[in-house]
Write a sequence for this structure.
């Protein structure tokens, strides 16, 4: 059981590594961008649905934007984790490079595109 706890603690010791920071910052930036876009679209969409101009459309747009802000506080962490999980291969590679340098490269499906002459066939470009 101690080996499992030790293995789980290894990434925390490496939090300052760029392989860790980059996915976290990418996920954070994409989450902020997603919620800002959602707030803009809610403000615009509710305003258009309420008539486009006038005090009622303005009020409806502001209330729609406020609702998105409330929802973003509630949903920010799940969206951040979902977007950050898209970049977890970088984290795994950083951990393997530092703590398991003798292990061979892991097989399996990789979503990164290969480069070079092997990409003549589109199905061969994914590893």
């Amino acid at each position: 059981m101690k080996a499992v706890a030790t293995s789980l603690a290894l990434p925390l010791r490496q939090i300052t590594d760029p392989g860790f920071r980059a996915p976290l910052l990418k996920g954070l930036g994409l989450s902020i961008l997603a919620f800002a876009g959602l707030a803009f679209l809610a403000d615009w969409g509710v305003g258009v649905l309420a008539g486009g101009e006038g005090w009622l459309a303005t009020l409806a747009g502001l209330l729609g934007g406020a609702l998105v802000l409330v929802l973003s506080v509630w949903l920010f962490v799940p969206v951040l984790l979902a977007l950050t999980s898209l970049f977890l291969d970088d984290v795994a590679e950083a951990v393997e490079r530092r703590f398991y340098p003798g292990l061979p490269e892991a097989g399996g499906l990789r979503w990164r595109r290969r480069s070079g002459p092997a990409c003549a066939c589109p199905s061969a470009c994914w590893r």
